[in-house]
Amino acid sequence: MQDRSSYPTKRIVNGGSRVLQCSAGTKFSMLDASTLPTSLNSDAVLNTLTHSTPETTTHGFNLNDFATKLVLADLDPATAKLAIGFLGPFLSAFGFLFILRIVMSWYPKLPVGKFPYVIAYAPTEPLLIPTRKVIPPLAGVDVTPVVWFGLVSFLNEILVGPQGLLVLLSQQVN
Question: Domain boundary at 33, 49, 71, which?
């Protein structure tokens, strides 16, 4: 059995970089390691991207600007600490609200429009409505608050946990 694509590609070698061109005409540049600067930082990558990609616009969208914004998404430690300061409490609060929603789902006759219950109901319901369309209740039990609690807990751990991405970025030395 052959493992060939119906869309052929061409390999073009120019000095230190190699270019792959697909049949649609899109060119992808692969840089040789010898042409990269010795210390790889976001400015060097941005400079390389700016010089190696042609000015391309599609429906008013500049791809060079997109590449620039993508590279500039590299957070400095101060911005990462600021993001931790906002995201940590926000994700923890939403996790707690979803725990309350799990408990509230055990009592379907609760007046969710009244004061103590509306605190957990109002912020979480806009997330749960579309999720219920994807994951319907199983045997009459609404599992969407459990799904969202898992997602929020996962995001909390990945971003602001002890080994989270933002925590590691905030400890980065420039």
Answer: 71
